[in-house]
Design brief:
The chain has eleven helices and ten strands. By secondary structure, the chain is α/β, with parallel strands linked by helices. Bound molecules: pseudouridine-5'-monophosphate and manganese (II) ion.
Amino acid sequence: MVALESSVLAQGLPIPANREAAERMSSAVERAGAVPAITAVVGGRCALGLERDELERFLRRDGIRKVAARDLPVACAQGVDGATTVAASLAIAGANDIPVFATGGIGGVHRDAPFDESGDLAELARTPMVVVCAGAKSILDLPATLERLETLGVTVVGYRTDELPGFFTRSTGLRLTARADTPDELARIHRAARSIKRTQATLVVQMPPADVALPRDLVDDAVTTALAEARRHGIHGAAVTPFLLAAVERATGGRSLRTNLGLLEENAALAGAIAVALSRDGDGE
Ligand code: PSU
Ligand code: MN
């Protein structure tokens, strides 16, 4: 089984791209031979896998709140619908012993703020799952995010790359300490982590597909514009990430959307392959 998040569907991507993302990610996991399960809070229940009508509610986006790990108990007790971030999705999937999770980009240390660090990092430090992503979103402070992952003891492995990918871009110039070139190798690393009782995630980072990746200077300019817009509007707290993603989309003339969809699918496919590799040795779930 491969867990997928729902905040990217209800907050991160616009309609109708969010439907395309849900379909492309789920199909990619299935093609790899694994079973996709979207995590969310549905009427106060922590769900692993959504019914058709439930998914439709999340894709319509209205009235669906963004639920981070700290919000889970309140969302459950109040019986609401909530789209789960990476952190909240890991909390749900980890509690159910799901071995693998895929997303687009994890949260991290924000630029330009006195202190704003995504709860995703803390949850990665206490959830021993394989997490596949394209790095942390380009809107973040990537060197600081990598330092925090090191401090937290999260193993970061480049899949067919020696560098931290930049979510929208293939390269950031930030060197990684580990690389693997096959799903089997990744499965071995994760099994080693489990066997020595590491509590952290194995964070697998993969570049966005070459045909949709954006050039670094274009993304740098778009992020600068987006950050200035966020400052002007006084955006803060949980609203920062969705706002910046939408602002980058405007600033790249919509090109970042294609990148986002392409990398979500690619990450889901790799997560499916890793889940299959893990289960082959009877160690998958
Ligand atoms: N990556 C995307 N789109 C998103 C997110 C990540 O391409 O919408 C979401 C994820 O759910 C991630 C969250 O966990 O943003 C991080 O939000 P914050 O910075 O508030 O922790
Ligand atoms: Mn934050």
